[in-house]
Amino acid sequence: xxxxxxxxxxxxxxxxxxxxxxxxxxxxxxxxxxxxxxxxxxxxxxxxxxxxxxxxxxxxxxxxxxxxxxxxxxxxxxxxxxx
Length: 83
Known about the structure:
- It is a single chain.
- The chain is mainly α.
- Helix content is 47%, strand content 0%.
- The protein has one domain (4-79): 434 Repressor (Amino-terminal Domain).
- The protein contains four helices and no strands.
């Protein structure tokens, strides 16, 4: 499984998006975004906004849970805690 920053790199490359474009979408500088990538320090809100930019949904999957076919647990964006 890829680290979060590696996943963002792979998807942004596939979508032909630069770090500057993602940073602008988040309302932060390219340097700040680069620092977050190096440290892997994105807030849940930032991750949600990046997923939205990529036209994807953010999902948290419990690797220890035994989920049967057809079962899933989804946290909607409006259910994330406010900072």
